[in-house]
Amino acid sequence: EVQLVESGGGLVQPGGSLRLSCVVSGFTLSSYWMHWVRQAPGKGLVWVSRIKNDGSSTSYADSVKGRFTISRDNAKNTLYLQMNSLRAEDTAVYYCTRSDYYDAWGQGTMVTVSS
Amino acid sequence: QSALTQPASVSGSPGQSITISCTGTSSDVGSYNLVSWYQQHPGKAPKFMIYEVNKRPSGVSNRFSGSKSGNTASLTISGLQAEDESDYYCCSYAGSSTFVFGTGTKVTVL
Widest CA span of chain A, in angstroms? Predict the structure, then answer.
């Protein structure tokens, strides 16, 4: 069974940092490009970032470029999102999702940026 | 990276067909056959419903179909059922390794 499990969310002050993790099972992580997608409370889905299957290429939404870093450790079956200089507007549920089709999703982890 | 435009809500009676539009630009929907659709029930993760405009993953009902004309993609749900009541989102590749989602549509079964 394909599973993606996010963790690392929580409450952080503006300007702070968090590192999200997404542990996958049931498939070979190294075979897939992976993404992070977020959803603010009561709002729609927003694409955040993508990373190539071997980690050699990354891309970001303009809203997070320069502040967020996506990475992966295929040996540990884990995808990461390092989030720095967090702002109130980064408050959202963060989902990791598989492939450019987003054909599998985790349950999400909530990030709240507030003082 | 502006969101694709979807109607906020669409409704229909059981058994009817409804269509949800997803309007982008010549830089995203109009340039690539990489439009996908997702169903999201409240408090749940999205579910993959359609990819590459009109392809259905295994396990998705054939009542769901996709199409595209110019800068607008569409999702049609035929034989509407109570379980189809949900939020629906489109997504398109937008070039330069970026992606963009639609604003989302709430489907109500009357």
Answer: 40
- What residues contact residue A14 under an 8 Å CB cut-off, 6+ apart? A86, A87, A88, A113, A114, A115
Walk along chain A (115 residues) in steps of 10 and give the mean pLDDT of each run: 97 98 97 98 98 97 97 98 98 97 96 97
Quick check: A3 contacting B, CB < 8 Å? no
A62 touches chain B (CB under 8 A): yes
Interstrand relation of A58-60 and A68-73 (parallel, antiparallel or unpaired)? unpaired
Write out the DSSP string of A88-103.
GGG-EEEEEEETTTT-
Of A57, A62, A102, the CB nearest to B91: A102
Whether residue A46 lies within 8 A of chain B, CB to CB, comes out as yes
